[in-house]
Amino acid sequence: MATLPAFSPTTPRGPALNVRPFFENKARAFWTLQAVGWGGYLFLRSGVSLSNGFSLDVVIPIIVEAIVGYCITLLLSTFYGAYRRLRPLAEVLLAIPTLLAATLLYATLDAFTFSFIHNEKPGITLTLVAGSLFVNFVILTGWSALYFAINFYIVVEQQIDEMRLLEMQASSAQLAMLR
């Protein structure tokens, strides 16, 4: 019966993987998630819309919608970043109206884009804005929830690292006292 050789510290192992935490560089993680998320949104919306046949009248509004959503979430991240410096209750009380205003802006721009491409006389109507509100609210609410969840995760990770450092310092102090 064949057995594996015993492991010893001198046994050569494969190349060590340099695995870094994804959120170590917060800016890189944000831009990566932003690009992948909106790229996926564009892919999903395009796939659904193109299932009935290819037409530039269908593709162009979706591309514009994704670009506008990308820009609005950049604005939201700036506002939310400023709100995070406040107390939690103030943060929530400011984030909700900001989200609602961003949703209304997004729906208005979507409605105008739709009317500009599909109607002979472009203009915004309440019906077009109302038709865009739900989808835009769901998108921006999901994005906002992910934004706050990721920032909460980063804060928890920082606190865990601080606790480990404090534990190591306490352990070192105890060992020094025992000597």
* Strand residues, percent: under 5%
Please count the helical segments. Answer: 4
Apparent shape? elongated
* Number of separate strands: 0
Q: Structural class of the helix and strand makeup?
A: mainly alpha
Termini separation: 50 Å
Summarize the structure.
By secondary structure, this protein is mainly alpha-helical. Helices cover 77% and strands 0% of the residues. α1 packs antiparallel against α2 (56-83).
Question: What would your notes on this structure say?
Answer:
Helices cover 77% and strands 0% of the residues. It is mainly α. It has one domain. The protein is elongated, with a radius of gyration of 25 Å.
What key attributes describe this structure?
179 residues; mainly alpha; 0% strand
Helix and strand topology:
Layout: H1 26-50, H2 56-83, H3 88-118, H4 126-178
